[in-house]
Amino acid sequence: MALSSKYNPREVEDKWYQQWLDKKFFHSEPYPDKEAYTIVIPPPNVTGVLHMGHMLNNTIQDVLIRKARMERKAACWVPGYDHASIATEAKVVAMLKERGINKYDLSREEFLEHAWEWKEKYGGIILEQLKKLGASCDWDRTRFTMEGHMTESVIKVFVDLYNKGHIYRGYRMINWDPQAKTSLSDEEVLYKEVQSKLYYVNYPIEGEDGHVTIATTRPETILGDTAVCVNPNDERYQHLRGKRVRVPLIDRSIPIIEDEYVTMEFGTGCLKVTPAHDVNDYELGKKHDLETVDVIADDGTMSQAAQLYVGEDRFVVRKKIGKQLEAEGFIHKIEDYQNKVGYSERTSAVIEPKLSVQWFVRMDELVKPALENVLNDNVQFYPAKFKNMYRTWMENIQNWNISRQLWWGQRIPAYYLPDGEIVVAETAEEALKLAQEKSGNTSLAMDDLKQDEDVLDTWFSSGLWPITVFDGIRNPNNEEIKFYYPTNVLVTAPEIIFFWVARMILYGYEYRQEKPFHDVYFTGIVRDQQRRKMSKSLGNSPDPLKLIEEYGADGVRTGMLFSSPAGNDLLFDIKLCEQGRNFANKIWNAFRLVKSWQVDEQKKDQTNATAIAWFEASFNQSLVELKDHFAKYRMSDALQTVYKLTWTDFCSWYLEMVKPAYGEAVDAMTYEATIGYFEKLVKVLHPFMPFITEELWHQLADRDEDDYVIVAEWPQADKQKDRRQTDKVLLQGGAAVFEVVGNIRNTRNTRKIAQKEALSLFIKTDTSEVYQQFDSTIRKLANLSSIEFVNDKVEGADSFLVTTAMGQPDTFFIPLGDAIDIDAEIDKLEKDLEYQLGFKASVDKKLGNARFVENAPQSVVDAERKKQADAEARIQAIREQLKSLRGES
After folding, report:
1. Are 74 and 109 in contact (CB under 8 A)?
2. b/e map of 595-627 (b: 16 or more CB within 10 Å)?
3. Of 445, 488, 553, 693, which cross-links 686 as Cys (Cβ 3.0–4.6 Å)?
4. Between vectors from CA 93 to CA 98 and to CA 119, what angle results, nearest 5°?
5. Which residue has the higher pLDDT, 726 or 120?
6. Closest by CA position to 558, among listed 66, 55, 42, 127
7. Strand 570-571 and strand 526-527: pairing?
């Protein structure tokens, strides 16, 4: 069969993915004789579509799960998606608006019918898109956080936490999203630095001339002021003790109170107190028994209580009231001011602090095991730097507001009796029974109970994800939860460490007395070359599916991983995908080369034995490196190891070492070894590049019906001690030989000597064994007619040095006869000497820096010392060459 000169992903990707599905290779069941390896997908929003962050996150998960599958583990990657209460309800409301329907003209049941209709039509698109990436999820296990048994589990947990005293209903200051018209948890508020105006407003002192000046960035809240507060130690305001002021524009009389909470140095040292619209003011209001006046309605407009500008948007009013205050003489001055403003993580609306009755989880006791088991590395974070962030947040955690004023989501299972009493139960029937017992009224009927209108925060349910996907709440001893839990690794983004990661750890210890996962691998954020986070609004994010179409899934996967160290942001460049595509083509062309060889079964040729042994050593070394990289989740390093092994060691060196001369056949031993190595390479490449490797696996040999690389066994390194020593010698020798060949090729280029012209090589060395072992390799790759060992320099020859692992540099001479231009050669060597002296000076300076030597990794310091030694040897050799050319003794 003729092979295309370029690898065409479109011809193979859908074919192999469908075959993997048909063969059920992704599916997993509890298997007592196997070690479980479990990953649960961070469930994307049901509203979501694939973006670059998903691409990175899911590529990493797929690499890990494919490797585990090849290691003969019971690899289970559970997919699914989240109901995303706020985002989904917004989508459904928008859809209804397009149909001319107002949400509030519908009953709750009617609205939910539309919501489920939307979910069935548009929900889960992202999971289908992930298949194009090659994601090998167990699709039979796909879960949705609002499906029947998942919701049942969430309700069961709410009731249990309520009965344990961890959940309560209370009236307190919360974060209000005026666009979504719902409360938010503290973690759902993003704070941004914004340029504002600081208004200095004069409040007239009641009953006398004079005023106090108060600075505020929110003049619209003046209408809700119920006190002015000063620090009791502030001598400037001692004369105001016991007095009152009048609120500008509405002339409300409010007291002047004293509290050390007020910072004397900020602004004027005088604080307006608006208990309904600031969390700190609310605490002051409770402490001093102040009136609470809520002047901003749920939709962000001014309420009736404001008296002025009723029904107008708060930000429009901010400008209007500023002008009115100025016009009526209440403004002392206005300054530009930069401050932090909270925005809704979901809708990007500016958050309004608001007093409200909500449901909360008491976090003080629940977080203790979740904190302890991260700090003691029972749950390990990669990179570990995120432990400090986690600890700081957990040690200062606030009670969690879990109620949302929405209809899409798990409805809070709290029921109100006619007298206002509350019962909490998993079902309405159980609630009625409890209500009858609590009230002593057995005639209470279902119609007498009213269920809470609110739904639970989506994170309340997704926090249970590693447990509920295996039905571990309803059936805590079922075989699946016992086999697959705790999961092995969670791959996620650091921005949801508090939203989600902390919640899962908390729930794990509360309901399984066990961690939910062993490791957490935090990916970085995908950014553009200007370090901006990729987003649709900025227009700087490519369409992932178009990338796959252009560069192939394997090209995009490797492109994403080429520069994605844990926890550090990835600066995405389209050239990374080009590099990935080029890598696929390199592998494909190597395969075409090998398949083009004619094999002579009778030919007996041992000249390739060293090359074969060398690549075996290189492969063993790479396996050891890979094991270490995977164990530490150094995914980019793992890919680089495989990349170098494939591109440099196999394609650039090994194939050149063993390929037959033009028109000649290769011996069977070399061919079989090469095909064997190709199969091993395909195996270690597979987790990163699943499609091209499956295609090559089937092209390399005739396969049995179920013989696929996706389920082939991961190669193991030879651990025998004598083998390791042999490998070390081979690798050191190979490194020296390749440097020799590179130098000879450079000489050809410099001297413009054709490759077909054979050269002679003379070697001055104390250890000739290395070069004798690789004799045929050096001759072949450098096209040498002879190799001789000498005890002294060769006059009139080009020379270069190569330092082997044995220590002293060896000198190599290439006689060129009359080809040498003495003056030009001296000029070239003098320039080289100047460069080497400068280079050595920079290395000396670095090594002379005690802080560098003490703090840099040992491997980095060792590398610098090797550079220093190589430069010294090179300088010595150049000076010897210059003496020779100048005829000096």
Report:
1. no
2. eebeeeeeeebeebebbbbbbbbbbbbbbebbe
3. 693
4. 100
5. 120
6. 55
7. parallel
The first and second tokens of residue 175, run together, are 């974060």
Among residues 329, 351, 373, the one where a domain terminates is 351
Domain assignment present for 47 = no
Question: What CATH number should be reported for the domain holding residue 287?
Answer: 3.90.740.10
DSSP three-state, residue 853? helix
Distance CA 50, CA 631 (A): 28
In a domain, 478, yes or no: no
- Measured CA to CA, the distance from residue 629 to residue 649 in angstroms comes to 19
The tokens for 232 are 């009791």
Contacts of 235 (CB under 8 A, 6+ apart): none
Mean pLDDT (the chain, rounded): 91
In this prediction, residue 327 carries a pLDDT of 96
Q: How many CA atoms lie within 13 A of 730 on its CB side?
A: 21
**Domain-located, residue 208:** yes
> What are the tens digits of pLDDT across the range 15-50?
999 999 999 999 999 998 999 999 999 999 888 888
Note the helical H segments in 192-334: 279-288, 314-327
Cβ atoms 351, 342 nearer than 8 A: yes
Provide the 8-state DSSP code for 605: -
Phi and psi (nearest 5°) for 588?
-60, -45
Q: Kindly report which listed range (559-573, 612-626, 642-656) carries the lowest average pLDDT score.
A: 559-573
Select, from the ranges 56-60, 824-828, 864-868, the one with the highest average predicted confidence (pLDDT): 56-60
Number of domains in the chain: 2
CA 786 – CA 770 distance, rounded (Å): 16
pLDDT at 778: 92
So what's the pLDDT on residue 409? 96
Backbone angles phi, psi at 488, to 5 degrees: -85, -50
Task: Indicate which CATH number applies to the domain containing 821.
Answer: 1.10.287.380
Neighbour-count burial of 132, counting CB atoms closer than 10 A to its CB (0-12 exposed, 13-18 middle, 19+ buried): middle
Write the DSSP assignment of 460-485 as a string of letters: HHHTTHHHHTTTTTTSTT-HHHHHH-
Residue 65 C-alpha from the chain's centroid: 16
- The residues that bridge with 759 in the sheet, in sequence order, are 784
Task: Identify the band that residue 807 occupies on the pLDDT scale cut at 50, 70 and 90.
Answer: low
The C-alpha angle 400, 404, 409, rounded to 5 degrees, equals: 115
Burial label for 234, CB within 10 Å (0-12, 13-18, 19+), is middle
Query: What is the rounded CA–CA span in Å between residue 876 and residue 566?
Result: 43
Alpha helices in 568-667 (DSSP H): 574-595, 609-631, 635-644, 655-658
User: What is the tens place of the pLDDT at every residue in 158-216?
Assistant: 999 999 999 999 998 899 999 999 999 888 888 999 999 999 999 999 999 999 999 99
Instruction: Assess contact for 182 and 405: CB atoms under 8 A.
Output: yes
Domain boundary among 336, 351, 366: 351
Question: Is there a domain that residue 728 lies in?
Answer: no
Instruction: Return left, alpha or beta for 314; rule: phi > 0 is left, psi -120 to 50 is alpha, else beta.
Output: alpha
Over 190-209, what HEC string results? Answer: EEEEEEEEEEEEEEEECCCC
Containing structural domain, residue 852: 755-886
Radius of gyration (Cα) for the chain, nearest Å?
36
Please count the CA atoms within 13 angstroms of the CA of 563 that sit on its side-chain side: 15
Q: Are strands 227-230 and 253-258 parallel, antiparallel or unpaired?
A: parallel
For residues 230 and 269, the answer to whether their CB atoms sit within 8 Å is yes
